[in-house]
Design goal:
The complex is a heterodimer of chains A (147) and B (199). Chain A has 147 residues and is of the alpha+beta class. In chain A, β3 and β4 form a beta hairpin. In chain A, α2 runs antiparallel to α4. Chain B is 40% helix and 17% strand. Chain B is built from eight helices and six strands, in the order βαβααβαβααβαβα. In chain B, β5, α7 and β6 form a beta-alpha-beta unit. The chains are: A alpha+beta (147), B alpha/beta (199). Bound molecules: guanosine-5'-triphosphate and magnesium ion. Magnesium ion binds next to α1 of chain B.
Chain lengths: 147, 199
């Protein structure tokens, strides 16, 4: 039973890695894991809040596990607004700016979200799992129509 | 084409400084000819965040580079720089290194592979200096090598006494560099921008 569950978990993890385009790079002792996806019909601000909360939690977890936060960063961009979210350990900061696409009169569909976690001394698989968890939480956020 | 390499640890403020610097250089354009600035973003891995931030600020970014210029210049980057030189021929090329790169190695390889000279500016995060200085000594110290300018950033987060200690440490590690204290989220001092511009 337990074995089965592990197998299932592994295969869903694999397909999620694909959905969220998750890529891992190891360099100079750092583990860099990044992913991106586009959500349509979801409200912007709650997604931003989720990422802020997750970055704060991940920072605490990394320090508690004896790792070092390199840089946790994310960029969210939609038709009207965009925000860069970043944490280097203690605080999570956000910088919002009007979308350049918007001012150029271009349209973008949905909200494009990229997230990168660059960390030292944390096992790659654990970090990958955390990143998949963030995207899953974002995915579960209700769509605007259903609210 | 003047080449500037912006180095420094992860999250130290390279992109923040780059945005201000690029804007300054363009504003300094004289007469009818606009100063052209090309930017190369090197990030660990395939998915970049900084290129999106730059695009979001209205810059045109071409993703012609893959792979890592951390240790040596790969062929993509060399042909990319040659292409930039022959097509755009900008007045400035600013290369943002990854936070785990050794900028002096990039400069060295630009010189040996392309015969191009580059200046190194290294940014140091004052708020994290004490925390990462020992565990990541090799990387942190190596990033200061050959830096002409060292910018101690995030001074808004650190008390004066601690800043003095950081600066003293940096002096020991690189006695040749000119050291400035800045805050990348506030407008940078024009004297400093001029110093970067004119060397
Ligand atoms: N408080 C404070 N925050 C700053 C300062 N400069 C930059 N930051 C913030 O620090 C974070 C990292 O800045 P970046 O400019 O992205 O740093 P970077 O060196 O380009 O990061 P990587 O490219 O990931 O290595 C962002 O949230 C910035 O807004 C500063 O002087 N003071
Ligand atoms: Mg950057």
């Amino acid at each position: 039973m337990a074995e089965n569950r592990i197998k299932i978990r592994k295969s869903t993890q694999l397909s999620k890695r694909k959905d969220y385009q998750i890529e891992t790079t190891l360099h100079q002792g750092a583990v860099a894991i990044a992913g991106e996806t586009v959500f349509t019909g979801k409200p912007f601000n709650p997604l931003q809040t989720i990422i802020q909360e997750e970055f704060a939690a991940i920072s605490r977890w990394i320090v508690a596990s004896g790792g070092i936060v390199g840089h946790l960063k994310s960029f969210l961009s939609a038709a009207e607004q965009q925000v860069m979210i970043s944490s280097t350990g203690e605080q999570v900061t956000c910088r919002t700016s009007p979308s350049a696409l918007f001012s150029q009169g271009k349209r973008s569909e949905g909200i494009q979200i990229s997230i990168a976690l660059i960390v030292f001394n944390i096992p790659q698989m654990d970090l990958e799992e955390r990143l998949i968890d963030i995207f899953d939480r974002l995915n579960q956020e209700e769509s605007e129509e259903s609210q | 084409m003047k080449i500037l390499i912006l180095g420094g640890f992860l999250g130290s403020g390279k992109t923040s400084v780059l945005l201000q610097l690029a804007q300054y250089l363009v504003q300094q354009s004289s007469g009818s000819s606009q100063t052209r600035v090309a930017i190369i973003e090197n990030e660990i891995g395939q998915i970049g965040i900084d290129d999106k931030v730059l695009r979001g600020n209205g810059y045109e970014v071409r993703e012609i580079f893959s792979g890592c210029v951390c240790c040596s210049l790969n062929s993509d980057l060399i042909s990319g720089i040659q292409e930039i030189k022959s097509t755009v021929d900008p007045d400035w090329l600013i290369i943002e290194a990854t936070g785990v790169a050794f900028p002096d190695k990039i400069a060295e390889s630009l010189f040996t592979n392309l015969g191009l000279a580059a200046r190194v500016v290294t940014i140091v995060d004052a708020s994290r200096w004490q925390r990462i200085r020992i565990p990541l000594a090799n990387l942190i110290e190596g990033q200061l090598n050959d830096a002409e300018l060292i910018l101690i950033n995030k001074t808004d987060l650190v008390a004066d006494l601690e800043l003095m200690a950081v600066e003293a440490d940096l002096r020991n590690l690189n006695s040749d560099a000119v050291i400035y204290q800045i805050s990348g989220i506030k407008p940078m001092d024009e004297g400093l921008l001029k110093e970067i511009q004119h060397g």
